From TrEMBL:
It comes from Dorcoceras hygrometricum. One of its GO terms (molecular function) is sequence-specific DNA binding. Residues 128-188 form the Homeobox domain. Residues 102-133 are annotated as: Disordered. Residues 194-224 form a coiled coil. This is Homeobox domain-containing protein. GO terms for cellular component: nucleus. Keywords: Coiled coil, DNA-binding, Homeobox, Nucleus, Transcription, Transcription regulation.
Amino acid sequence: MGFDDLHSAVGLALGLGISSPLNLQHKSKNPSPSQKLDDDQFCDPLNLSLSGETYLQIHEAVKKVGTDNKIKVVCSDRQLSCGRLYRQDSAASSFSNVSVKREREFGSSEEGETERVSSRISDEDDDGSNGRKKLRLTKVQSALLEESFKIHSTLNPKQKQDLARDLKLRPRQVEVWFQNRRARTKLKQTEVDCEFLKKCCETLTDENRRLQKELQELKALKSAAQPLYMQLPAATLTMCPSCESIGAASSHASETAARSSFAVASKPHFFNHFNSPSAAC
DNA sequence: ACGAAGGATTCACTTACGTCA
DNA sequence: TCTGACGTAAGTGAATCCTTC
C-alpha cells in the first residue's frame, strides 16, 4: 500500500470549530510548561480529525513506506566543512546558508537517521543548482501532522523527535510545520473573530439607528403634548414605581398609554398617593 | 539573593517554490 | 506555454523564558 492508496482510504473530517469567537487566548509569548499544558487543551478552530484506527493505519504505513523512498545524499563544500552529510531535499539552498539554529538542529543525536532518509526525496537538483527547493509533504504526512497538532498544538523536544522519526522528516521540518500550522490557525481564528465583530457592529448600528429614531419620535410626542401635560393637576398623575412611567390616574395601563403624552422618559416622579402602584399598572 | 550571559523556543514577518486555473 | 494567485515550506530577527555561573 502506498501513500496515496492509503490516503484514499482515509476519511478526513474538516471542521471549523468556533467555541467562542471572542474567546481569544492571551498567552505569553513563550509559555511556561504549565501554559503549554493549556495549549494542548486549546481547541483548534481549524480541525482536521482522524479516527484513532485511521491514525494507527497511517502511523504504520508511514513506518513501512518511509524506508522505501529513494535516497540521495549530497555534500556541499560548506557541509563538508562542517563534517556532516546533509540530505539534499527541498531546503537545499538553506543548507548552503546554514544558520546557527540549523547547526544546533543538526547537532542533535538523532540527526544521523533523519538526514539520511526523506519523505519524498527526488532526483531533483541533479544539475547541481543551489536554488531553494520546496518540500511538499505527502498527504499521509500531512494527515499525521494534523492529527498530532490536534492533540498538541506545540511539541516538546521528544514529541518532535518521535514525530520526525515516524514521518522520516527532520525535526526542524516538523517544527516548521507546527509553527506554520499555528500561524494558520491564528489567522483563521482572526478571520472568524473579524466576521463576528463585523456582524456585531452591523447589529449595533441597526440598534442604534432604531433607538435614535425612537428617541426622535418620543421627543416629538413630548413637545407636542407639553401644554396638555402642564395643564394636568399633579394629583391626577400617577407614576408606577417599577416602570417609572407617568400616566393619568384613570387610564394608563396600556403601552399605548405609556407612549402617550402622559408618559415621559425623564423622571418628574409625579405620583398620586391615592392610587396604588399596582392599580396604576 | 541577584544579575548577566547564553541557550532554547516561539512568534511575526518575509521569501520563495509548487500548483492550479 | 505563459502568467498571476494562492498555499505553504522555510529563513530570519526579536522577544521571552530558563539555566548556569
